[in-house]
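Study this chain:
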Amino acid sequence: MKKSLILSLLSAVALTGSLYAEDAKPAPKDAPKRELTAEQKKLREEIVKKYDTNKDGKLDKDERAAISEEDKTRMQKAGLRGNRGPKKAE
């Protein structure tokens, strides 16, 4: 009886853990991206214009590293990039 109860509890814990792990997976690459607000778009354009030294319309690794703490804070408050950390290589 005790063995059955312990086995049932362990199974329930394992199942619960796998459900939480499923929720933690990142969205697939083909998932639709969220729309940015007008304020977010304006701030993103301003940041790109300010830090895009090679004028290719996007920020590379070195350009992103040059963003000031003040601008990073502004971006985070606006909901851009948040605390995701560095972008992973593809």
Q: What stands out?
A: The chain has a mean pLDDT of 79. Residues 23 and 42 are 32 Å apart (CA to CA).
